[in-house]
Each structure stands twice: as structure tokens, then as C-alpha cells.
Amino acid sequence: MVNQPFPTHELAVLRADLDRFGYALADQWLNASDVSRVRDLVYRESQKHLAPPDRLADIEDWVIRGGDQWVLLMPGESGLDELVAHPHALDLARHLLGQRIHISGFSAHVVHPGNQIMDLHTDQWWMPRPVQPGEPVLKPGDVSRAVPCFGQPVAAAHAINPAVVINVMWALSDFTASSGCTRLVPGSHLSGVEPDPSQEWETIDAEVPAGGAVIWDARTWHASGANTGNAPRMGISATYCAHQFRQLQNHTAGIKPEAHAALSDEMRELLGFRLFSSYGATDSFESEFARPSYLRD
Ligand SMILES: O=C(O)CCC(=O)C(=O)O
Question: How many domains does the chain have?
């Protein structure tokens, strides 16, 4: 029996791999001409913020950290809605999270040659932790990266949280072990704990060709790898969260009026404008969608 996912375009296999391994590999969601158009766009954006190549690995900020560069994209404005609202991506997101979801983050991730290796992590480390009655509680308002919950990447014997976030990482260049592809620990999504970065963990390289995608349950231990080649590894990360959670990027505050006016109802919901049982209201608890300040009566 196979013990890791392999690239496929079969949605049923992708869903099953996500459930079983905590991640799945899609092989050809974008054709070659779309890949090259999107990659050119990301490349141009990434060049605007680039530091000298000999210093990339030393830089410690959120735009370029140790050679990992993040370029924030705005759904509805970036010209890349075909990716963030791609039917297969939304299908897998809803398979894992349920019907009502928001786009949490949307950004290009460029892994430059000679980058510092990223620590393994999960993408929902901030979830309140399940406890047995009488057990000490880490109060939700006290959760921070400084209070980790380390353990082994094996299925827990006690209750764990469900996935509330999913990441769809579009490969715009070939993702290979030497280009710094995503590395993951199969099955770690069922552990309910985080990886201790001071320890070595066995990972699988998620190798997919340009035009494919690596899709992971936010509980799965993962990180990008070391780019030992001579060209940047280019990806776009689209993350989705269930509708009661805070989004990584504040699309509702950031989107420009003209882009907001052109959004379909589906995109307005995905961006977080749709109220969830009154939550997210601006001027009325009754309205279906929140109105930005410039549209309020
Ligand atoms: O770019 C990658 O391969 C992994 C990125 C990552 O770790 C993340 O988005 O949380």
C-alpha cells in the first residue's frame, strides 16, 4: 500500500489523500501558457522589493526572511482570481472545512537560491487547545507562538481540533527537492501538536511540476525546503479558513472601492464580506453582506 501521495488530477484521489496523509499533490491545474503568464506577473512584483542577492539569506523581515520572499496579493485586484477561486481549490477547501469559507491569505512565495531552511510548523498553531474537564487551560487570549505545544507526529489518543484552514500552494516553477519544494510529515495532521524546531524530523518532498499544486491541511507539519539550485522557486499560496476565523490578510479593509464594486457575490463571500449569524456586521445585523464605510447610509 502506498504511504505517501503522488501527483494526480483526480479530485476523488486528492480528497482521499488530504484525509489520509494531511496533504495531496495536484499535477496539472494550470497549462503552460497560464503558468508563464502568472509567473511573469509574480516575478515583476517580487523584483520591486528585492534586496541584493548576496544578502538575501541574512534578511529577517516579513517581506524577505532568510531568502523566503512573500508578495501579498489582493483577491479581486491581482488579476489572479482564476487561481484563488479555482473550482478544484474551492472543492478541496470545502471538502476539508465545510461550505462556508473565506480566503485567508493570498500571496506569492518565492524561495530564493541559498535560502535559510524554514522550520517545520503548522498553520493553525493559534487554535485553542482541547482539554479534559479539570485539566489546566491555556486561555485562548494567551495563545502565542511563545507557548508551543510540542509532541510526536503520530495520531493522538485524545480529542484534537478539526482543520480550520487549508493551504493550496500553486507551483509556478517545478517544485523539486533541490529547488526548495514544500516538505511535509504525512499523518502529522492527526497529532494535535506542533513540531519542536530543535529536533530533526523526517519529511517527504512534495515534488510537483509547474502548473501543479501542493494542498495541505493546516494541521500538517510542513515548511519550504532549501533551494540549492540557481533559480528562484516560485509559488502562490492561497489559504482558506472556515468563516468564523480571523483571516490572515484583511481583504475587507484593503480592497479598493472600484474592485469591491466589481466583485461577484461568491467573491464577496470568499473575501469575508458575508455576515455569519450577525458577525462581521458594519451598519446592520440584518444585511447579507457588510458594507464598506463609503457605501453606508
Ligand atoms: O512555500 C512552501 O513550500 C511552504 C510555505 C509555508 O510553510 C506556509 O505557507 O506556511
Answer: 1
